[in-house]
Amino acid sequence: MNNNQRRSDCPISCSLDVWGDKWSLLIIRDLMFAKQCTYGDFLKSGEGISTNILASRLQAMEENGLIEKLSHPDSKAKVLYRLTQKGIDLLPVMLEISVWAEKYYDIDKDRKVVVKEYKKDKEGFLKASLKELKKV
Amino acid sequence: MNNNQRRSDCPISCSLDVWGDKWSLLIIRDLMFAKQCTYGDFLKSGEGISTNILASRLQAMEENGLIEKLSHPDSKAKVLYRLTQKGIDLLPVMLEISVWAEKYYDIDKDRKVVVKEYKKDKEGFLKASLKELKKV
DNA sequence: ATTTGCACTTGCAATATGCAAGTAAATTTC
DNA sequence: GAAATTTACTTGCATATTGCAAGTGCAAAT
User: Fold this and answer.
1) What are the DSSP calls for B114-128, one per residue?
2) Which of A119, B21, B55, B101 could form a disulfide with A11 if both were Cys (CB 3.0 to 4.6 A apart)?
3) Pairing relation of β-strands A79-83 and A36-37?
4) CA torsion, points B31, B33, B35, B37, in degrees to nearest 10?
5) Residue pLDDT, tens place only, B52-78
6) Gap from B66 CA to D22 C1', Å
7) Burial class (CB in 10 A: 0-12, 13-18, 19+), A10
């Protein structure tokens, strides 16, 4: 799949090597909103990722330390995915992407509210959200 | 190529539809640093984009209003590419990506300096950089 | 008039994606 | 307790995208 060679030591390039595709950040998004997700939860997301791509992205992101697998308390058949600290640290990136998209595209109204709150007091919003994400 | 269908009205998804691949943000990066670039300048960048991919990305980003083409003052054979306001507005995204990468990867020391400056006073740094980018 | 530089295009092989169907273990249902 | 269902994947194959190398056409320099 994705061999883990860096293309350069540019931070943008490094980042794209890790999550620069059409799906990885959507998985991260789901985890940021829901905190924990099962494989099936990701499949249910609106964009319709196909199951083989989902499996390959989850594996790559686990190998790159963005997410981790946990055993589900309810059942051995289920797996819980969760963000690591490295994954949680993508929050500011996700929020700035949202701010940009909100300026130029029609986006979901719930997310518009988040953007508005964030813009009002970026540092404060980040601090509170990070605290919340780290909780579990 | 890239048909311009939205996958959903999620801001992350919208954004990825526009620049979510391994190359677009590197082109944006070059333009943010150099302000103006020719086709040949992009080809010379460290990551080694191939010429057909470069052409397709430039076209897509022009169609999506991130960049624009200008005639080169020196020669009719040359073309200058420049960021539009929409492209310039990706600056906070680029900076937060850099902050993330700087935390987890070994990055170029010049970029480390930029990250350090940005983190010291985000709003101030942004304001100054935006002003500088809009100048030309 | 010929060569060089610049911005692309084209052809083709290699890789990645998307869809549909399949598998294996764990759980639920009868 | 056997059979059906749920869950997390894997496999096969068609299609789309990428990457490499070579080619084209116009402008400018020699």
Assistant:
1) HHHHHHH-HHHHHHH
2) B101
3) antiparallel
4) -50
5) 999 999 999 999 999 999 999 889 999
6) 31
7) buried
> Is B21 in contact with A25 (Cβ distance < 8 A)?
no
Residues (38-97, chain B) with CB within 7 Å of strand D atoms: 48-53, 56, 75-77
ipTM of the complex: 0.94
Among the listed residues A91, A90, A81, the one whose alpha carbon sits nearest the alpha carbon of residue A129: A91
Which site among B18, B24, B93 would you substitute to test the A interface, given the most A Cβ atoms closer than 10 Å to its Cβ?
B93
Q: Which domains does chain A have, with CATH numbers?
A: 1-84 (1.10.10.10), 90-136 (no CATH)
Protein residue minimizing CA–C1' distance to D17: B1
Q: What is the pLDDT of residues B4-57, one digit of tens each?
A: 678 999 999 999 999 999 999 999 999 999 988 999 999 999 999 999 999 999
Q: Do A15 and B103 touch (CB under 8 A)?
A: no
Structure tokens at A88: 């949680």
Residue A44 CB closer than 7 angstroms to strand D?
no
Strand order in the sheet with A67-71: A36-37, A79-83, A67-71
Phi and psi angles of residue B56, each rounded to the nearest 5 degrees, phi first: -70, -35
Asked whether the beta carbons of B77 and B69 are under 8 A apart, the reply is no
Closest CA to A18 of A5, A31, A27, A36: A5
Side chain identity at residue A40, one-letter code: G
Output the six-digit token pair for B68.
């624009």
